[in-house]
């Protein structure tokens, strides 16, 4: 296990370094024909510009989810809320599923009651990300209620009305040069994508624990056999 954790440590360090390089690349346009099935892996976590319109009546919610950064309000730390997903149609007719950001639970519930207003053509910048895999105890999604517990990318596309192909999934980035307007969803910044629950430091710590246990175990076995050998030698001499 110590060797495995060491390998994981090295892999995680390389992963973070590679992701940093991708995040620091200049903004480039998303290829016109990009879909879930053909988008190059090398595009992931590179800033991409999209132009188009958000499609009314294609809004879905991924919750419960914690905020992308620590939030404070007058009642204390806000920890419950969810992400808003909406279909974004580009001038060439292709679609993209966009994570528009996170809202606290109360604001999200109010957002659900509002009709989707017609949108104007706009440009947004975001990162291609992947959906999630269903876990053993994942509850079933409820697309009929516009509610997803886990991010099933193909099912979300179908719920949004996209049945010919599965669009790419894009997290809309926060504009770090401007203050977030009041009431706007909270969007992730680039540095949010460099954080992992299992950090390289944790891998190193666990590797150290396993190596220590291995050394202690080896020492105990050696001590036991050495003691047994001494007792056997004494018995023979007696």
From TrEMBL:
The keyword Disulfide bond does not apply. The keyword Mitochondrion applies. Keywords: Membrane, Mitochondrion, Mitochondrion inner membrane, Transmembrane, Transmembrane helix. The chain crosses the membrane at residues 204-222. It is a multi-pass membrane protein. GO terms for cellular component: mitochondrial inner membrane. It is found in: Membrane; Mitochondrion inner membrane. It comes from the Eukaryota. Belongs to the SURF1 family. Probably involved in the biogenesis of the COX complex. This is SURF1-like protein. The lineage of its organism: Eukaryota, Sar, Stramenopiles, Oomycota, Saprolegniomycetes.
